[in-house]
Amino acid sequence: MSVSAPSQPETPAAVAAALRDARYLADDSTALIAFLAQRLGKPILVEGPAGVGKTELAKALSRATGRELVRLQCYEGLDEAKALYEWNYRKQLLQIQATASAREGDAAPVEMGEIFTEEFLLERPLMRAIASPDPVVLLIDEIDKTDQEFEAMLLELLSDFQITIPEMGRIGATTHPIVLLTSNNSRELTEALKRRCLYLWLDYPSAEREIEIIRLHAPEIDRRLAARLVEVVAMVRELDLKKPPSIAEAIDWARTLILMGAEDIDAETFRQSLSIIIKHRTDLDLVAERIVPRLGRAGANGSPGATATAGE
Question: In the CATH hierarchy, which fold is given to the domain comprising 12-84+124-201?
């Protein structure tokens, strides 16, 4: 079955511009990989620490291309029935009973083809993405939480954009999905899966880029305060935390500071809004112990805002 190709971007710069319009600030490598995925028709494996924007990239591609986002959230123990499809056994049983009643006195059994059809099929995310008549973005989120058997099940879909149902045969995609797999790098993925994908490593952005990201999502914040926020978040991320602040949480903190009417991040402002970026009790204690005194000293010396103001 031929796969139709929606309109494709002409250059990586066009992809970067479309993603920016969708409120995602992509660097050069991200824009290039997103461009190649659409032009070459290959899935993207996006790895990196939690909270750097891997899932948001898929959402932004969905917004930028006007495609529906189909998301499969992975977890330990995820199997084919929850990811691909399963049969509606209750409906099949009712059909068998109805057919048997209609054929009363006829010894002919119910044929497989009568109950193993699309009418009795329950589509799960992977099946829905393949069977969709419209182009979609398929997000397979946190693939590293599954096992190698699940990865093996994905290989046919990632290679040929098709799945095989034993009772019905092969079902191929009629439109070409953009496929992203994300991983927090908690385990090594198989070489077979990696061979089928383009690879993108996302890390926390540079300070300058994170300031741009924050101001893109919270335009009311001035550059000096955004720079101060990024400086403090970087100090927090250097600590050995259970969960370092994500980019999304940094954006939430920026919006919080705006609502608080804060003009700087001193020790008191930091204490009041700390739970916006820190989500574990032990992390709260560690950050309060290590960061608050530094803010107090910096506030007294007036040094932290100096660099930010100079760069404004």
Answer: Rossmann fold (3.40.50)
